[in-house]
Description:
Elements: H1 6-11, E1 19-21, H2 24-37, H3 47-68, H4 83-110, H5 115-139, H6 146-169, E2 172-174, H7 179-197, H8 206-209, H9 216-219, H10 227-257, H11 270-283, H12 299-323, H13 333-344, H14 346-350, H15 360-393, E3 402-403, E4 409-410
Helix pairs in contact: 2-4, 3-4, 3-5, 4-5, 4-7, 5-6, 5-12, 6-10, 6-12, 11-13, 12-15
Amino acid sequence: MRYLPQEALNGLSKYSYKSVDKSLLSNYVLNPYWNQLVKLWPLWVAPNTITLSGLALVFLNFLTLLAYDPSYLCERGGVVLPSWVYYSWAIGLFLYQSFDAIDGKQARRTGMAGPLGEMFDHGCDAINTTLEVLLAGQALNLGRSWWVVASLIASLAAFYLTTWEEYYTGQLFLGVISGPVEGILLITSIFVVSGIHGPSIWDTPILRVLHLENVGFLSNSVLNLGINEVFLVLCGFGLAFNVVTSCANVTRSMKQKRTTATRPPLLNLLPFVVTMGLHVVWLSAPTPTKSFIVQSPLLLPFLASWGLQFAHQVGRMILAHVTGQGFPWWDSTWIWLSLASIDVYTPVLFGRSSLVQSSVTGVQLVVYSTLVISFILYARFVYLVIWDITEHMGIACFTVRKKDSQGHWNAAVDAKGKKIL
């Protein structure tokens, strides 16, 4: 299957990037810094190279997590990460934010602004979202828990919501407080605090922090959560606010454009809900033991595969946006996730043992197979989309175009005349 039929390729010429950033921190503090930072990059460096460099730093951070904590345990489980690891995570994430902010500026400096950059930028952001949830889960001492799952759901939901809003309004909207700006700086601060005090600091009951632990009716209440848990609850409220805001923006945009969608926009939030539901159902499986995956080292590859599936899902949405195609509702990974869920619930549904996931080895086989399949599907999507766009537009992905003697932009080619991606 090709993701870009000819009519979609023709729609690329109509695309123009639009964004609104109301963040005071971004406009008055970070933007002057970004304007100076982009000048350090030579004009021969392609914008996508800058974006990919930032993601490479995050991957390096993730590799240190795998090196020091491959089973995804926190301090309470006996794994103590060196302080420098958390500091390196903070530096890596801050540089990722910086590079992500200046790739568009570099694109305008080099005349490379266009739909390919939009696709590449959002694709890297989607991957980074999952990786940072995993890193932050370790730094916040959440370990193998449903709190990590909930934080991934909330983070992916916020990203999906923003992309869904951009699809219908035609512009990326960042409010006074947004994930790409304040959210990233907040996580960076968490890494720094964990480096100074260790992740266990986040387990401190919030009532002790507020000096209310001796108040009788509060001390034994559900309000006496750890700082890390309170943080995630507040993020949940933030997500609810974003849902209301995004829905209002889409409704307003539809009325202003006086367009009638073939499907009500709210229904196009369901693909995320379906994907989330299938993953949660699988995680909640009663065999071999209740919530086995959540409590085992399989949680890390399970969430990583979920992140790859999500990147594929929102990547198709962004592609539909820049090419003017219809909203991509169906997701082929639902078939695999449904089969995995049915298999693990076979004892409950049919009174017989699971075909594959009746043992720990069986569950491991399915989880790692899911990771491999998710990676192949997303890698194939990335390759085909990049190839089709660069082929159609006569550009290169990681090379700045050159002007010929007549002032026309040429695609970069090697000595044999083959186009360089």
